[in-house]
Amino acid sequence: MYTQIRFADLGKGIMGRTERDGTIFINKNLSEKDIKKVIAHEKIHKKQFENGELDYDNEALYWRGKRYKRTDINMGNRNLPWEGPAYKASDNV
Questions:
Q1: CA-to-CA distance for 67 and 14, rounded, in angstroms?
Q2: 28 sits in which H/E element
Q3: C-alpha span between 45 and 19 (Å, rounded)
Q4: How far apart (Å, rounded) are the C-alpha atoms in residues 87 and 76?
Q5: 74, 14 in Cβ contact below 8 A?
Q6: pTM assigned to the model
Q7: What's the first-to-final CA gap in the chain, in angstroms?
Q8: Which pLDDT tens digit goes with each residue over 31-64?
Q9: Structural domain of 72
């Protein structure tokens, strides 16, 4: 399946993000090495969306049906269940 990758100014500290439709946004200010790592990381999230494990709305993220309020979590924390596999992929680049 085709993955659309776009470069954008994502704001301070945000390296990448994946939308529900599978589009991956990469911070336009990253080095080539970091871009490769972020793509590997975000492709895992893309798969998580596609297989129904991960979803989100304005107030929360949902992992395998469990709700995680955005105000209660540190986005990108390696210990979040959906982040572990994504960081593992990016660490191996």
A1: 22
A2: none
A3: 9
A4: 9
A5: no
A6: 0.92
A7: 21
A8: 999 999 999 999 999 999 999 999 999 999 999 9
A9: 5-91
